Prior knowledge:
This protein is an alpha+beta fold. It has helices at residues 14-22, 24-30, 125-144; strands at residues 2-10, 39-42, 49-53, 59-68, 72-82, 85-86, 100-108, 111-120. Helix 1 crosses helix 2 and helix 1 packs across helix 3 (125-144).
Amino acid sequence: xxxxxxxxxxNAPREKVWDVLWEEETYKKWTSVFGEGTYALSDWKEGSKxxxxxxxxxxxxxxxxxxxxxxxxxxxxxxxxxxxxxxPIDDPNQEWSGAMETYLLTENKGVTxxxxxxxxxxxxxxxxxxxxxxxxxxxxxxxxxx
Length: 146
């Protein structure tokens, strides 16, 4: 597994960036670069389960490993989801099990630096290197809108 790191400066307070990242409507917009109609199901509390899903029911079964509102969130991916069903965590085909995805927001004088890190299986590294910056560009765009 490879850890990928991305960073972007956003001319908006971190509370606004946080809202763009995790509120349902804007989440769907910036994650659309990974797949149209992508969404998340969760109560968004630390320790809770979260399902990252496509409209066809494929995605990732994860937990919110750590959360500090407006500052930091870490997801631990447990297993894949196929046709809306969690795949067994102990399945040897679960390449993503234990992968982490984190978002850190720091603000200085109204400028928020968003740092995202994600563990990726090798076959998706190039895809995420190209696609993830496009997603963060959308977060920037929506965060900087009045």
